[in-house]
From TrEMBL:
Pfam families associated with the record: Glyoxalase_4, MeaB
Keyword Endoplasmic reticulum: no
GO molecular function list: GTP binding; GTPase activity
Top-level taxon of origin: Archaea
Family: Belongs to the SIMIBI class G3E GTPase family. ArgK/MeaB subfamily.
Matching NCBIfam families: lao (TIGR00750), metmalonyl_epim (TIGR03081)
Domain VOC: residue ranges: 303-428
Annotated InterPro entries: AAA+_ATPase, Glyas_Bleomycin-R_OHBP_Dase, GTPase/Isobutyryl-CoA_mutase, GTPase_ArgK, MeMalonyl-CoA_epimerase, P-loop_NTPase, VOC_core
SMART domains: AAA
PROSITE patterns referenced in this protein's UniProt entry, alphabetically: VOC
Species assigned in the record: Vulcanisaeta distributa (strain DSM 14429 / JCM 11212 / NBRC 100878 / IC-017)
Gene3D superfamilies found in the cross-reference section: 2,3-Dihydroxybiphenyl 1,2-Dioxygenase, domain 1 (3.10.180.10), P-loop containing nucleotide triphosphate hydrolases (3.40.50.300)
Name of the molecule in the record: LAO/AO transport system ATPase
Transmembrane regions: none
Length: 433
């Protein structure tokens, strides 16, 4: 079945199609989605043993069955398979038979912050499938378990009955991200003092936040159902506030940025898994860890910066590339070289479009003798001065001294000494990164 067919079925809350799409996302397949905000994404965090799974189970049972509910439980990665280690779905097995509820356990894959790229992709898929509520249960590992704040619209921080000192210890991490603070296991006699301590802390935080939503504190027992209906009402009130003040899309923006960062981590992880030769050189002392990391990221060797194309009409050329759906920069005038420059951005490099500004420039002479076409190839180097020494040792000839270009400091190797190829060498300046 094609991805488009799966998406169509997922839109109708076909749980098998949703599961398949999430599996594809976990395998690295990019799922094309046009997200329209309608789901309430709720992050539930707190220390291990605070009753997160029990509370989600009880809330899901209380939500009307005409509402679509998705539950993502984030577990530590298995050291052997990389998959979900704890498997919280076992605790909620009863809910899986309900047609309005979808449950999935996902692993952190060792990502600092508690979430990985596949989890963000799953949230996107579930929102595309028009879930009304998306609950994300985090690992609850402490201060680092806070990436959920970039994904969720509402954060529930569960605090089991604790002493004041223990709450202060939590405050450095989880306690600063909450919208609703839940004293869980409130059937415990110690819950009242925890409730009072939290109220005092939240009162101080309300003054700092200055938000239209004031963090709330509520006592709940997920096991016995005490306070759950009131908590669900608070959650719905929070959603109405977000819709009313237009801030619902802010979490979508932060979610997309986190998705980009986590996808980069995924790519880096794959490169690390394929870098056994580099690892051996580090172990044997042939490379320092820093040198190996630079090689892994392609920062040690010269790399293709761009391919430059000389054109007679820059505006016409730009329009053609835009029609191809490519991103085009604003024009830059490089007076030293007598050209106007526009960059066309590709996934891993760029195309530079050059239009001459005066008849005496090298680009004007190129157009006159050869017509439009590839003018030169540019390599980025880390140390231009050092690379020039390498050029001279190889018996190659430069066209002149280094000068300022559109990308930084540049110089050219004469095509007569390099098989007819005009090769530009670029050293980027920090301010141009």
């Amino acid at each position: 079945m094609s991805i488009n067919e799966l998406l169509e079925r997922a839109r109708n809350w076909d749980k098998a199609a949703i599961a398949r799409l999430i599996t594809l996302a976990e395998e690295g397949v990019e799922i094309p989605l046009n997200i329209q905000r309608r789901s309430h994404v709720i992050g539930i965090t707190g220390p291990p043993g605070s009753g997160k799974s029990t509370l989600i189970y009880t809330m899901a049972r209380r939500i009307p069955q005409d509402k679509r509910v998705a539950i993502l439980t984030i577990d530590p990665s298995s050291p052997f398979t990389g998959g979900s280690f704890m498997g919280n779905r076992i605790r909620m097995q009863e809910l899986t038979s309900r047609p309005n509820i979808y449950i999935r356990s996902m692993a952190t894959r060792g990502i600092r912050g508690g979430l990985n790229y596949a989890t963000i992709a799953a949230v996107n898929i579930l929102e595309y499938a028009s879930a009304d509520y998306i609950f994300i249960e985090t690992v609850g590992a402490g201060q680092s378990d806070t990436d959920v704040k970039y994904v969720a619209d509402t954060i529930l921080v569960l605090v089991p009955p604790l002493s004041g000192d223990e709450i202060q210890a939590l405050k450095s991490g989880l306690m600063e991200i909450g919208d609703i603070y839940v004293v869980s296991k409130s059937d415990n006699q110690a819950s009242e003092s925890t409730y009072r301590d939290l109220l005092a802390m939240v009162d101080m935080m309300r003054e700092v936040k200055g938000d239209s939503w004031k963090p709330a504190v509520i006592k709940v027992s997920g096991l016995y159902g005490y306070g759950v209906d009131e908590l669900l009402k608070l959650i719905d009130d929070r959603f109405r506030v977000l819709v009313g003040n237009g801030k619902l899309n802010e979490s979508l923006t932060s979610r997309r940025l986190l998705e980009m960062r986590l996808y980069a981590y995924d790519i880096l992880e794959k490169r690390l898994n394929e870098s056994k030769e580099l690892e051996n050189e580090v172990v044997n002392g042939k490379l320092s860890p820093q040198e190996a990391a630079r090689r892994l990221l392609g920062m040690e060797m010269p790399r293709l910066d761009h391919v430059a194309v000389a054109v007679k009409d820059l505006n016409s050329a730009v329009e053609k590339f835009r029609k191809l759906g490519l991103r085009v920069s604003d024009p830059i005038i490089v007076e030293e070289q007598g050209v106007k420059v526009v960059m066309v951005w590709l996934g891993n490099t760029r195309i530079e479009l050059l239009e001459t500004l005066n008849p005496g420039s090298t680009v004007a002479k190129f157009l006159e003798s050869r017509g439009e076409g590839i003018h030169h190839i540019a390599l980025e180097v880390n140390d231009l001065e050092e690379f020039i020494k390498r050029v001279q040792e190889a018996g190659l000839v430069l066209t002149g001294k280094p000068s300022r270009g559109a990308e930084g400091i540049v110089t050219f190797i004469h095509p007569k000494s390099l098989n007819g190829v005009l090769l530009e060498l670029v050293q980027r300046e920090a301010s141009n990164e």
